Amino acid sequence: MARRFAREGYLALMPDLYSNDATRKTLTVEEIDAALPLSRLDDPSAELAKLAPERRAAIERALAWRKTTMPKLSAYADDLGSAIPYLRSRADVRADAIGLIGYCMGGALVGELLARGAAVAAASIYYGRLPDPARAAAIVTPLEGHFGGADAPLTSLVPAFDAAMRAAGKPFEAFVYDGAPHAFFNDTRSSYTPAAARDAWARTLRFFADRFAGAPT
Q1: Do 147 and 121 fall within a single domain?
Q2: What is the CATH number of the domain that holds 123?
Q3: What percent of the chain has a predicted confidence (pLDDT) above 70?
Q4: What pLDDT does residue 140 have?
Q5: In whole angstroms, what is the distance from residue 190 CA to residue 173 CA?
Q6: Is the pLDDT of residue 215 over 70?
Q7: pTM, two decimal places
Q8: What is the three-class DSSP state of 197?
Q9: Taking the CB of residue 107, how many other CB atoms lie within 10 A of it?
Q10: What share of the chain is helix, strand, coil (3-state, %, to 5)?
Q11: Which domain holds residue 158?
């Protein structure tokens, strides 16, 4: 994604949030992806029992790691937040034209930063958990969101958050793509939904261009 934004003329920074996470380094992306649907089950033991012993052990490690990531969101948000003053310190960055974008957990981290009052020119959340509506008043950054219509656990949160943002007079626009699943933008997964991804990408580029007065940074 950083390269895609760079091709559009932006200076893109993608922090390695797991650089100090020793457990993450022992897991493959495929193992983490395979653990995701099981992490949503109340009891994944029946599904795990279907796997070969070595595979089951790897997925169990990935499940255990996933359970530790949510409590760490605050620390991850601290690391992500430190990128903002760093970017502002650079001579090749317009300090008034910095944006945030995140996908899945990255989207949740963007929401957490905004709810803490982070002030940048624009922010975009792709199928990430939105902040608690009670925190809407603290958000000062224009925000857009992109959600899959078939991703009910996250899409169901949009109406209450949208209402809270409107009540607080905060700029927020959400787009829900009919039939699109979670991670519809990720072209490395079977969840990739080309039409929704194209529409979301075009809207995001327009949103950032409008908020940055048309100039990439």
Answers
A1: yes
A2: 3.40.50.1820
A3: 97
A4: 98
A5: 27
A6: no
A7: 0.86
A8: helix
A9: 24
A10: 50, 10, 40
A11: 2-16+74-211
